[in-house]
Amino acid sequence: MRGIFGLLFTTLALGHVVPYGLDADNTPALLERQVQPVRLTSVKVAPIRTSEYPFASGECDNGQVVKLQAAIIEARELLSTAGDLLKNKGSQFTDTYEEWFGPDKTPCFTCSKVSESIRKHNFEAPHRDLGLPFERIGQTLSPNQLDPRALTFTCWPIGEDHCQARFIAGTINPGLHPGSGLDFAGTLIGLCPRFFDSPDLQTVIQQFQGSNQHQTENSAGLTLVHEMQHVLATTGTKRNCTDVIVGNAVAYDTERCRGLSNEDKIKNAQNMAFFALDVRANQGRG
Ligand SMILES: [Zn+2]
């Protein structure tokens, strides 16, 4: 619990340099005022347009919606494969688990609770929520019109500020974002054009298994596995992950993710993604 609060302070302290309460790939996380999460009942894709820079959003075109749906299927497969592995007795003592979540040194009567919690909240819950009924909304919504019970995706245009900064995607939890003054009624995941140009999973697995593993990119499905770790309504507050900062960089690559303290490993979103990728890439490995 101390680690969780430590991260909260870390991310809050960075709020001044990361405006708008946006947690996105390639930027440190910022936790903003959070409303009580509700259980999600649907997945939506909708244009979000406001006069407030930088949340202006373009509408996803047909091709982007098709790619998003394929990414959701891929993410669900990755999540279920990882979740299934964690059902195995003693799975918290496997090499894969220890590599991404750290060795479990707690007494055995409690140690399984950590891996069980990760299985339920970081793999099974995202798998469940991404499988909810999918609906495409034509109406342009403002942040305060977001459905509190929906996970809403939107397609940010290339000129959007965060996309200009080479973000892939970003998650905004419900609540007031002090930087922008906007009140988000529901959960929003913004997708930058880079998301739709992501390498496919087979390419990413080859990168992961190659000699330059630290340059492994995210497939679109793997990006969704990562972003879902930030969705409060899905993970719940105790297992909600952030993007842990190492020095002045965020732990996104394999080296930094492996180098985190054991406490941070189980709080870093990309460690969840790499665990899922590792399980998928090395099926059969103990
Ligand atoms: Zn992140």
TrEMBL record:
Keyword Signal found: yes
Gene3D superfamilies in alphabetical order: Collagenase (Catalytic Domain)
Keywords: Signal
Signal peptide extent: 1-15
SUPFAM superfamilies linked to this entry: Metalloproteases ('zincins'), catalytic domain
InterPro entries cross-referenced by the UniProt entry: MetalloPept_cat_dom_sf
Name of the featured protein: Lysine-specific metallo-endopeptidase domain-containing protein
